[in-house]
Amino acid sequence: MKTLSVAVLFLATIASAHAFAQTKTRAQVYQELIAAQQDGRDFVTDTSYPDVNPIFAHQLEQQQEARLAQHQTANAGKVASSTAADSPSATN
């Protein structure tokens, strides 16, 4: 009888371990963290994972808008410099 109950207990332990298994690996979660930091989404907390904590949502929006404006001004500068280089010179 003891052997049977030990076997049942062992099988129940193994089954419960598989029930709590996660679908993501540690490497996948680490890559998500790196991507979030690069995107400026550092505002994910333990209580809000994988979403941004609502407390920080407005701050994140402002950072993304500032980053977008910075990219637009940088791209505008590149376009202006390439246009000036492509135009014929007045001394020809």
UniProtKB/TrEMBL annotation:
Alphabetic keyword roster: Signal
Signal peptide position in this chain? 1-21
* Residue stretches of biased makeup (Low complexity): 63-72, 80-92
Q: Which InterPro entries match?
A: DUF4148 (IPR025421)
Region of interest called Disordered, as start-end residue ranges on this chain: 63-92
Protein name in the entry: Purine nucleoside phosphorylase
